[in-house]
């Protein structure tokens, strides 16, 4: 009996893309804590993160429903619940809508309307505009859809302050610029699968060499943008040291990918580093923030 119950749970859980949602929730938490000059009310943190996390999970599940036929073609995704037959589209869609409604409702009731509205637009942007249209319409799909993926720290910030501020938009911009080199590295590795599925990812439409140039250019731009929190006095030297070190690492991978004639292996290493990069970059933002608060309190 337990095995019967556990099976469906694990399938529904996998619909949410838990690793992606974990990174979303973490960057939203960083946005919350950076927005506060001290403690944040526990209810804002709890209900804010649960609401944002459920909305993100809902978007991921809707993506599974819309892309189930594509997932069945691609090696990376053919084991997902829908193409494998573990769940059907109705089950997945009911689950997706249910957790999405619950997430937005929690934000309206326990956080604030602005955060709920922005979260809803992010959900629509990813689950519908990107998945249904942009993904199939243009090789710039991931660039245009980056706004939805870049929203979590902004949502965390508005959950605490109730307003959109310059610092929040800068956090948004960092993830927005990070998204193309992050995803295009994976797209290089999965180029043939995207071509088979007729998805116009940049390596498919413009070739691997052109994509490698774009990854390098975006990585250079990202390096510059990540210096801005220090330049506007949002963060201090701890963050600056972290951002420069991590940025040099990202540039190393981007340059190596650009120069590699057989880029598949290094492409996946670049993709893996990009996830490590963003997680640690936001961790440095957090450590720097509380270190500065501590020294203000002490001195």
In short, what is this structure?
The protein is mainly alpha-helical and 299 residues long.
Description:
The chain is mostly helical and 299 residues long. The protein is 82% helix and 0% strand. The protein contains 17 helices and no strands. The chain has helices at residues 2-15, 18-35, 42-66, 68-71, 81-84, 89-111, 113-137, 141-144, 146-149, 152-161, 166-189, 191-196, 202-206, 208-225, 228-231, 237-259, 264-298. Helix 2 (18-35) runs antiparallel to helix 3 (42-66). The longest helix is centred in the C-terminal third of the chain and has 35 residues, at 264-298. The chain is globular, with a radius of gyration of 20 Å. The model is unreliable at 1-6 (pLDDT under 50).
């Amino acid at each position: 009996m337990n095995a019967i119950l556990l099976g469906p749970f694990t399938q529904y859980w996998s619909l949410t893309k838990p690793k992606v949602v974990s990174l979303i929730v973490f960057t939203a938490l960083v946005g919350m804590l950076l927005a506060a000059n001290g403690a944040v009310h526990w209810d804002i943190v709890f209900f804010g993160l649960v609401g944002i996390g459920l909305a993100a999970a809902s978007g991921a599940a809707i993506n599974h429903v819309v892309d189930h036929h594509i997932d069945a073609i691609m090696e990376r995704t053919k084991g997902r619940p829908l193409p494998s037959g573990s769940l059907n589209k109705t089950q997945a869609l009911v689950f997706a809508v249910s957790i999405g409604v619950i997430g937005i409702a929690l934000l309206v009731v326990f956080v604030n309307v602005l955060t709920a509205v922005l979260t809803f637009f992010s959900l629509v942007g990813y689950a519908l505009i990107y998945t249904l249209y942009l993904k199939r319409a243009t090789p710039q799909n991931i660039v245009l859809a980056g706004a939805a993926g870049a929203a979590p720290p902004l949502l965390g910030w508005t959950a605490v302050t109730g307003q959109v501020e310059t610092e929040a938009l800068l956090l948004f911009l960092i993830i927005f610029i990070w998204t193309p080199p992050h995803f295009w590295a994976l797209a290089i590795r999965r180029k043939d699968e995207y071509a088979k599925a007729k998805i116009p990812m940049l390596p498919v439409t413009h070739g691997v060499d052109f994509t490698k140039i774009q990854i390098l250019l975006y990585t250079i731009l990202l390096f510059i943008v990540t210096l801005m929190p220090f330049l506007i006095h949002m963060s201090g030297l701890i963050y600056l040291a972290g951002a420069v070190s991590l940025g040099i690492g990202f540039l190393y991978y981007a340059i190596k990918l650009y120069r590699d004639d057989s880029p598949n292996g290094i492409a996946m290493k670049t993709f893996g580093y990009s996830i490590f990069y963003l997680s640690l970059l936001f961790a440095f933002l957090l450590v720097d923030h509380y270190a500065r608060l501590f020294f203000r309190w002490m001195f």
